[in-house]
Amino acid sequence: MLRAIGQTMCKTSAVVAEDIVLRGRLQGIGVRPAIFRLATELGLVGMVRNTPQGISIHVEGTPQQTALFRSLLPTSLPDQAEVSGQQYCESSPVGNHQFEIVKEDSREAIVTDVPLDAAVCHECLEEVRQPGNRRYQYAFNSCARCGPRYTVIRQMPFERADTAMVDFPRCNECDAEYHSPADRRFHAQTISCSQCGPRLWSMTADSQRCDDQQEALNEAAQAVLCGMIVAVKGVGGYQLIVDATNPDAVERLRQRKGRISKPFAVMMRTAIEVKQAAFIDDAEERALLSAANPIVLLQVKDDTVIAKGVYPDLNTVGIMLPTSPLHDLLLERVGRPLICTSGNREGTPIAFEEEQAEASLKGVCDLWLHHNRPIVRPIDDSVVRVMDGSCVTLRLARGMAPLRFDLETTQTQIALGGQLKSSVAWSQGGSACLSPHISDLGTLSGQERYLWHIADWQSLYRFSATRAAHDCHPDYFTSHAAYRLFPETQPLQHHYAHVLAMMIEHQLLDQKVLGVVWDGTGYGTDRTIWGGEFFVVDRTECTRTAHLRSFGLPGGEAAIFQPWRTALSLLNQLGWSESFEALSVFESLRMDMRLVNQILESNQFSPATSSGGRLFDGVAALILGRQHSEYEGQFPMMLEAIADPEEKGVYEFAVSDSAPCELDWRPMIRQVFEDVVSNVSPGRISMKFHRGVAEAIMAVCRCHSELPVVLAGGVFQNRLLSELIAEMSRDELLPVYLPGMIPPGDGGLAAGQLIGALSKLRESDVSGSTR
Amino acid sequence: LAHGEGGRWTRRLIRQRILTRLGNIHLEELSDAATLPKMNGAPVMTTDSYVVSPLFFPGGDIGTLAVYGTVNDLVVSGALPKWIALSMIIEEGFPLLSLDRVLTSIAAAARIAQVQIVTGDTKVVPRGATDGIYLTTTGVGELIEPAPSGPRTLEEGDVILVTGPIGQHGISILAARENLGFDPMPQSDCGSLWNAAEALRNAGCEVRSMRDATRGGISAVLHEWADSSNTTIAIDEHAVPVSSEVRGACELLGLDPLHLANEGTMVVAVPGKIARCALPALQEGGRCPMAAIIGEVTARRLAPVVVRRGQFAEIPLEEPQGAPFPRIC
Ligand SMILES: [Fe+3]
Ligand SMILES: [Mg+2]
Ligand SMILES: [Zn+2]
Ligand SMILES: [Zn+2]
Question: Where are the transmembrane segments (chain A) (predicted)?
Fold first, then answer.
């Protein structure tokens, strides 16, 4: 019908031409084919091409045709398309004979977004599961809407020749699909089939190679069923796959990886299966089913088939759906939920090349399942958690990053993030990006990977930064990297950066806000360790208006892994060390406690901190009666897991009227201790503590009731705490913003550093011009 | 002890207390300078000041440190230590008993290290101008050929050894300073490195570099070596000898023994093929039963020094800075 209108109009009117540029996340999701279809249906001639600036369209036809094109364009684009800017201008007809999709090679800075990896779509999965389909059982099926993107791009714009798929020329059948406007693979860059696409093979620990793809898959599935560990080359890197219902297999994985209690993520085949294993609401289901394909933290059901050893001492487990057809084929063959954890030694970055994976996972896995589609840049799986009905990113990675955010700046700037959960951010050509989570920087290979990524992103996004923002901690590796690599460096206080990140998240940059930042540790401007902070912040200024009362961390980092030290330090301020030492659960530590008590007085060996994360550690050690923690945040997570929601009591904090105001935890710790010795259940104590912290935070918020509040810092990964605050703030009509896309923890730090550094630049520009 | 009474009083102090303990031919002449006999090898000279606090600690005191510190500086340069000049700055009111203790230690250490105190100087300064007593020792020794070729000559494949358990001195000082009641108390390793160096020479081991790992511990030495040879030095954490007292104290305080000072323990770099002869030489001839091979020199990477934990995790070792301080991110 449209076509008929177009054709008749063409005969009666003069030909005009128009140029249109669309910016945003538009490449790799079938935008050009959609435009092609619309233009040809309307009888227009011209062309569409990917450029570094976005998508550029030239149409020629009658004024009516071009007007119709303009009005229908927004609704003709694929669902995933995000248009962040558009530009129309008149042009002169060049006399095209048809409408074409043109390839473009360009070296300019890119303004459009690098496409993100998308989980296998429903249609592609159906084909793989459909006997008789020519892609039946094909592990690398993809289409215009789904498949690897970020992980296969060598350079922008997104064209097959510049991706890892260049090694796999399309066969005749795939080529026909590619050129057929009616096909859902029309102009899809990553398509392939078992005739022309990548191939799988398996390799045993004693170097037995199997090149038959179905055989290799069967072998891998069989190994998993026997309780073995299989390293599978996924989309973003190698993953270790283990039967999640087999406690012995889980235990073996823990031993080989040297990972005692940190939870593993689980992959399940369908949302229905997930519902059997865990409680799941609409927002959680949406996150689970989204193309980003994150690991979603869900509350497990008691009767789940998932082995307890997957999530020791917790009541939540991270679950994801199949990322690619390869995952689905494995899940189909095994018929059970699978542990799916990144393929690395603890502390080292994820392996993504065959040889590297065989070397680094030797002794960890029993079998490798490789494929020959190169991973151009590795990326971990994303992790999200729904809080108060919306999705909070805990780890920004595959399918979600690089995360673009709008920023009014023309400056090229990079921000190098923190030490833990490192990531970087950059601005260039009018937009800004937060990178995916990189790696732990405590190991040499982690540091090497970090520097590799910085070089890689500069080349992918075609910028070269000379200015770097970094944390004001002088000994972070990232601070050293700033000095070493960039001529101009700008330090920014850790918690200020956390608040700025949440301000850009909620588009509050033009306002004054109260930033509540509770995290593990960050270097304060008074050279002590901060982490229970309240700041009044605007874009250029930051005032510490309140903070937790400080306490010593005996032995520094040692206190993070022995949280009982922090408990002792807290009780010592009440003069109750001896009563603590008398607790029978800590009997074996009595000698150590005596020594720790001695160093509590020493500033040198017990650095002072106002950290909220460490306060949670200490209280958790006291309530749980446990001695050692394996990873940062373990005790607080366990504390959250046991909280008894029926308990309505609340512990007290005192608020001083000094400036800055001190939030005094001593009344709280006194009450906790009294409840512990009188054997109140840990679940009830935990709940009263969570309510107490929420109430204390609200008390400070009330003193600034004219300001919107943003919650930042890793402590707010705690769903119970965040939701308590959200609920109280609703009752009191105080605007409180929970974290969102940008992670509240140190993974989001770089975004805040970037904004802080750019604001300082802007300020100096302004002051420079008025002088 | 009083000050300001001029020459007569000081001479009495010297005659009564110092000469009786440190006496030898050169010193008894009481002249301002000592005339020393001719040597065969090139003269090697070093000087160092000692301001340690506390003055007395388990395993030694400021006097032992002043002798062994200077002796060891000569030894690691490849010299035979021979003579020492001693200068003392004493705070008014410093107990004579303590002075006697320090002098006795100096005498004993000099005897063990086979060096002579040949000249010296003593000043008494007003209260508060020093912290009890400061010592300065200047040592002269005779170079024994072939001398170590120096840290710049380290190359890929060289092996790194340590002569004994590390961190003893650093922990014993900290425990004494902070009044930490460890049981047993860690003892300082304060002592001469002559035997160890001599044993390597006797066994005919080619040595690239030797260094007494004092301030900053073996970490400081390895960083300096790696930077001057443009290599990366990798060590295995489990191979580094550490006594259980030091390990326990480090865990408590959040310290890394690699950063702690030693006063009688050195790091040695030898070519890879020499390792098999150097280790038994140190353990038997050198009377260093705990000596160990702790790592090797590799091609330069991102970090100058890495510590291997297990088979794969390589942790970059931070360069020590100033006072030992617990780590915190
Ligand atoms: Fe933080
Ligand atoms: Mg010296
Ligand atoms: Zn698809
Ligand atoms: Zn094909």
Answer: none
What is the H or E stretch that residue A719 is in? helix A719-731
Sheet of B159-162, strand order = B209-212, B266-270, B159-162, B292-299, B231-236, B305-309, B313-316
Domain boundary pick from B111, B143, B175: B143
| Boundary-marking domain end, from B80, B112, B143 | B143
- A465 vs A416: CA distance, rounded Å: 11
pTM as predicted: 0.91
Q: In which domain, by residue range, is A555 found?
A: 529-536+545-740
Rounded to 10°, the helix A564-572/A612-624 angle is 100
Nearest by CB to residue A445, choosing from B310, B314, B326, is B314
- Residue B325: inside a domain, yes or no? no
Give me the pLDDT at residue A7, please: 43
The one-character DSSP state at A351 is: P
Report whether pLDDT(A23) > 50. yes
Q: In Å, how far is B252's CA from the nearest CA of chain A?
A: 6
Domain tally for chain B? 2
B319 close to A (CB below 8 A): no
The CB-side HSE value for B165 (13 A sphere, CA atoms) comes to 15
Number of domains into which chain A is organized: 4
Arithmetic mean of pLDDT, A720-745: 96
pLDDT higher than 60, residue B30: no
State the Cα–Cα distance between residues A531 and A520, nearest whole angstrom.
6
- Which one of A360, A444, A553 has the shortest CB-CB distance to B306? A444
- The range of the structural domain enclosing residue B292 comes to 151-316
Kind of pairing between the strands at A383-387 and A278-279: unpaired
Residues B113 and B173 in one domain: no
pLDDT of A379 over the 50 cut: yes
Please tell me whether residues A283 and A367 are part of one structural domain.
yes
Distance (Å) from the alpha carbon of A244 to chain B's nearest alpha carbon: 26
Interface size, chain A vs chain B, as Cβ–Cβ contacts under 8 Å: 89
Same domain, B265 and B302: yes
